Amino acid sequence: MSREGVSASISGSEMTIRKGEPWGEPAGIESPTLMVSTDSELAAVLQGYRNSQTVSPVIGLLGGSLHRTLGAPQRDEAALRAGEGYIYPIDVGILEFSDAQGEKREVVFVAHLLALTDPRSRLWKGRTVIAMNAAFLDDLNLAPKSHPNDGRLDVTDGQLDRSQRRQALRRAVTGSHLPHPALMEQRVSTRLEVRGETEFRFLADGLLCGAARQFSLTCMPDAARILL
Q1: What is the pTM of this model?
Q2: R_g (Cα) of the chain, nearest Å
Q3: CA 104, 199, 139 angle in degrees (round to 5)?
Q4: What are phi and psi of 46, to 5 degrees?
Q5: Separation of alpha carbons 105 and 211, rounded Å
Q6: Which of 61, 88, 138, 223 has minimal CB crowding within 10 Å?
Q7: pLDDT digits (tens, 9 = 90+) for 105-128
Q8: What domains sit in the chain, N to C, each tagged with a CATH number?
Q9: Cβ contacts of residue 213 below 8 Å, gap of 6+?
Q10: pLDDT tens-digit profile of 39-59?
Q11: 10 Å Cβ neighbour count for 228?
Q12: Could you tell me how far CA 104 lies from the centroid of its own chain?
């Protein structure tokens, strides 16, 4: 597989995919040490390896937004353990913030991070910062240009009024909600600092993980290898 239009452990080897180059390799005899079914499960495993400062093994991925972004191959655990599938290097995102007690927090995410000011966590109802390492969030194609190994996070930041929000949600199914004059887009390869006038609630790969008025986002290139 190749990725057109992009440059390109947990580490930072600066070996992300480059335009026209092949990406991924047949699994062969290298079987996964672990199997996970969701983005949040994969992130939790990688968080553990990051906390212990050890390199993660190849991890089999069976579902989730990252899996869908990579074509949602229909291989089950038995097939992956039998040597079928492809191994892909991926980047991961790091969210950093200080909690209400002043303790510094660091959260790994593999597919998406939402920072929302709306108490009910509705997209663009209130200021919304979205950082994507995958293309999809549930049924929404929020980052149609995103690639999980290009060394960047695709970030949008903004708020929409009621009619704009309704239209954007409808268009986001196909990814045609972007570009939008009220949504600032960035492709972040280094640390991005965000400050707000009100508190953001953080959802990392779908799980609530804290809240703060300011935070940072960082992309860690080639942070893991997954088998699909």
Answers
A1: 0.89
A2: 17
A3: 95
A4: -65, -35
A5: 10
A6: 138
A7: 999 999 999 999 999 999 999 999
A8: 25-91 (no CATH), 93-219 (2.60.200.40)
A9: 195, 196, 197, 198, 199, 200
A10: 999 999 999 999 999 999 999
A11: 20
A12: 21
